[in-house]
Design brief:
- By secondary structure, the chain is α/β, with parallel strands linked by helices.
- The chain has a single domain, classed as Succinylarginine dihydrolase (L-arginine/glycine Amidinotransferase, Chain A, 5-stranded Propeller), CATH 3.75.10.
- The protein contains 18 helices and 15 strands.
- A 3-stranded mixed sheet has the order 2-1-15, sandwiched between helices. A 3-stranded mixed sheet has the order 3-4-5, with helices on one face. A 3-stranded mixed sheet has the order 6-7-8, with helices on both faces.
- Helix 4 crosses helix 5.
- It is globular.
- The N and C termini lie far apart (42 Å).
Length: 448
C-alpha cells in the first residue's frame, strides 16, 4: 500500500502581528513592535502550499485560532462584554492583550507530535497536542489545536488523539519542532527522533545559561509512551545548550530530517557521534540506510543558521529518490549560506535542488518553511479517512485566497489590537473558514 508524508501547513491568522513575545527567538525579539501585514503573510503561506501541491506533494491546511482570546483574558480577571474586556486589558495590561492576540498558531510544527501507524503499538496514527507551556501566548493554543486536529482526523479506527501533557515546566513540550522520523518508506516502521533541551529531573544533563530550554527529556519520553512506541524505534538526543543560548530555540532551527537523511549543523547536538551511531543501528534493523549531512561551522556559523533559517527548511523526497530543500529567501540573502547551498546541490549528493520562497512576514516573527508545517505520514487508507475539506486543491487555494482578500487587514500595529472590531472580523472570518474546510464547530465562540 502506498504511503505519503503529508504537509499540513498552518494558515496565518487575521491577527498576525509582531508582538516580540518569544524570548530566545532572535527574529521575534528584533522585529518587535513593527507593523505587520496579515494579508500578505497569509497569501505568502498559501503560495507555498500551492507550489508544493503543484510539484506533486500531498498538501493540507491547518486552520488558525480565534484571536484575541477573550476567554483567556477573562481567566486573568478582565470582566464585562467582549469589547469591555479588550478595552480594559488594553488600558491596564497591554502586554496581556498582545499575548492574547498572537497568531503564533500558524507555526504548526509546534501544534503536536505525530507518530504514524507503522510505529505505534495499536496500528493507529497518534497525535499529542503540544502544551507549549514555556510561553504564555502559546500555552493557550492547545485546547483549540486539539479540536481542530480532531475535526481533521476524526476516524477513531485510524487516528488516536491525546491531550496535552501537564502544563508544568517539567513536561515542557514543543511538538514536532523537536521531533522527526527516519524510515526507508513512510509506510514502514521507522525510528522516531526526539530532541530535548534539558532534563527536569536528571542533573547530569547540562542546561543553557541565557535562554530557556523549552523541551524536556521527560516530555519526549511521555509522548513516546502515549504513542505506544517501542524502545528499539526511538532515539533521544540532547540539543547543544550553547546553540540554544545563540537563539536556537527549537531543534528545527539547527537540524532537519526526512526519510533516511539527517541534515544538521556541526554544533547542533551533544554527543553527536553516539547519537548518529544509535540512529544508524536502529534504522538499520528496520531496513533503512541512515545517512547524515553535517554542515561544518567553518562554512556556516550558528549565527548564519539562525539569521537565514537554513535548517528551518523542508526536506522533501522526490519520486526519483533525490531530495528537494525548500528554504526561505533569507538563505539567498546570506552569502555564506547561499554559497554552501550552491556547493551542496552541485556535488551530486542526496540534496539535488533548492527552491526559495518569500515568507518574510513569517520569518520576521521567527518562523520559516519548516515551522509552518506539521508532517503526518499516512497510508492510502488513512489519507482517504482524513477530512477532505483540509486537503489542498486548486479550487481550495482559489477559495482561500479570496477568503483572505475579503477578511484580512493589510496593516496591523499594536494599537490596532485594542480595536474590538478586530475580534468581530476574526470571528466572522473563522466562522466562514470552518464551513470552507468542513471542520464544524471548533472555536469557542461557535461552541459557547
Amino acid at each position: 500500500m502506498k504511503s505519503y508524508e503529508v504537509n499540513f501547513d498552518g494558515l496565518v491568522g487575521p491577527t498576525h502581528n509582531y508582538g516580540g513575545l518569544s524570548y530566545g527567538n532572535v527574529a521575534s525579539q528584533s522585529n518587535s513592535q513593527q507593523s505587520s501585514n496579515p494579508k500578505e503573510a497569509a497569501l505568502q503561506g498559501l503560495a507555498k502550499m500551492k507550489a508544493l501541491m503543484e510539484m506533486g506533494f500531498q498538501q493540507g491546511v491547518l486552520a488558525p485560532q480565534e484571536r484575541p482570546d477573550v476567554a483567556a483574558l477573562r481567566r486573568l480577571g478582565f470582566a464585562g462584554s467582549d469589547a469591555q474586556v479588550i478595552e480594559r486589558a488594553a488600558k491596564d495590561a497591554m502586554p496581556l492583550l498582545v499575548a492574547s492576540c498572537s497568531a503564533s498558531s500558524m507555526w504548526v510544527a509546534n501544534a503536536a507530535t505525530v507518530s504514524p501507524s507503522a510505529d505505534s503499538a495499536d496500528g493507529r496514527v497518534h497525535f499529542t497536542a503540544a502544551n507549549l507551556n514555556c510561553k504564555y501566548h502559546r500555552s493557550i493554543e492547545h485546547p483549540t489545536t486539539s479540536r481542530v486536529l480532531g475535526a481533521m482526523f476524526a476516524d477513531q479506527q485510524h487516528f488516536a488523539h491525546h491531550a496535552a501533557l501537564p502544563a508544568v515546566a517539567q513536561f515542557g513540550d514543543e511538538g514536532a519542532a523537536n521531533h522527526t522520523r527516519f524510515c526507508r518508506d513512510y509506510g514502514q516502521a521507522g525510528v522516531e527522533f526526539f530532541v530535548f533541551g534539558r532534563s527536569a529531573f536528571d542533573t547530569r544533563y547540562p542546561a543553557p545559561q541565557k535562554y530557556p530550554a523549552r523541551q524536556t527529556l521527560e516530555a519526549s519520553q511521555a509522548v513516546a509512551r502515549l504513542h505506544g512506541l517501542s524502545d528499539d524505534g526511538v532515539v533521544y538526543a540532547q540539543q547543544n545548550p550553547s546553540v540554544i543560548d545563540q537563539g536556537v530555540f527549537h531543534n528545527d532551527v539547527i537540524a532537519v530530517g526526512n526519510g533516511e537523511v539527517l541534515f544538521y549543523h556541526e554544533d547542533a547536538f551533544l554527543e553527536t557521534d553516539k547519537m548518529l551511531a544509535e540512529l544508524d543501528a536502529k534504522l538499520g534493523k528496520r531496513g533503512g540506510n541512515f545517512q547524515s549531512i553535517c554542515v561544518p561551522r567553518s562554512q556556516v556559523t550558528v549565527e548564519d543558521a539562525v539569521r537565514s533559517y537554513l535548517f528551518n527548511s523542508q526536506l522533501l523526497s522526490r519520486a526519483d529518490g533525490s531530495m528537494l530543500l525548500i528554504v526561505p529567501e533569507e538563505c539567498r540573502g546570506n552569502e555564506r549560506v547561499w554559497q554552501y547551498l550552491q556547493g551542496l546541490t552541485s556535488s551530486g549528493g542526496l540534496i539535488r535542488e533548492v527552491k526559495v520562497f518569500d515568507l518574510k512576514q513569517s520569518m520576521q516573527n521567527g518562523g520559516g518553511p519548516a515551522c509552518l508545517r506539521l508532517r503526518v505520514a499516512l497510508n492510502q487508507t488513512e489519507l482517504a479517512a482524513v477530512n477532505p475539506g483540509v486537503i489542498m486543491t486548486a479550487p481550495l487555494y482559489d477559495t482561500l485566497t479570496q477568503w483572505v482578500d475579503k477578511h484580512y487587514r493589510d496593516r496591523l500595529s499594536e494599537n490596532d489590537l485594542a480595536d474590538p472590531q478586530l475580534l468581530l472580523e476574526c470571528r466572522t472570518a473563522l466562522d466562514e473558514l470552518t464551513q470552507i474546510l468542513k471542520l464544524g464547530a471548533v472555536y469557542p465562540f461557535q461552541i459557547n
